[in-house]
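Consider this today:
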Amino acid sequence: MALRFIGIDPNTGHNECPTVWYDDDREEFVFQGRKAGEELLEKCLETGSIPDTEAVVRLPARMAQMIKEAVDAAERAPLR
C-alpha cells in the first residue's frame, strides 16, 4: 500500500486528530475524523443505508485545503 500522508488538522495539536491520506495503489482517499453522532447518522440514513463495513466521519472545514491536495494527488495519478 502506497499511503501518501496529506495532512493533519492543524488546530488539534497533532494528537489523534483528523487526518487525510491518499492511497496511490488503491486510488482511494483515506480520512480519519470524529465519529458521527446518532443525529447525524439518522440524517445520513435518509439518503440510503450505511453498510456495517462503512462509517460516517466528520472533518473540520479548515481541512478543505488538505482534502483538495488529496484530490489533486488522485487527479495527477496515472489512469489504470
